[in-house]
Amino acid sequence: MRYTIPVVLALASSVSAVGNAVVKNKCSFPFYVWSVGASVGARQTVNANGGNYSEVLHSDATTGGISLKITLANDGLYTGAPEQIISYTLDGAQVWYDLSTVFGEPFNGKHITVTSKDGPTIDWPTGSHPAGSQVRVSSSGNDVVFTACA
């Protein structure tokens, strides 16, 4: 019985809090976000001029990672509208994140970024994919923040 408390304390100290995946909208128009792993989450509206969406960083047992898919169209995920995709994967004490598009570039002409407190920034000054890899890594305790119209 006397070993129970040290074991519980050791386990509790080895579990660290994880950050959030955050989507910030500084644009003058709303957009829509779906959290996608093995299944598709409910559509979330991110209002213009300061709206945001946030979820705790998590894993998917089937796919491993999560993609936050953003479209400018209300039903864009299901109609082939251009998608901005922020993907992340938890790997123990680290979170790997990247930025990509499919079916076009919904923020073409707008400055977009993905930042994390101790990870490198992904910066698309014109909303278009620059050359090179966009994969970055940070501590999983930090937020990963996508900002549209940065």
UniProtKB/TrEMBL annotation:
It comes from Lophiostoma macrostomum CBS 122681. Residues 1-17 form the signal peptide. The keyword Transferase does not apply. The keyword Ubl conjugation does not apply. Pfam families: Bys1 (PF04681). InterPro entries: CetA-like. Keywords: Signal. This is BYS1 domain protein.
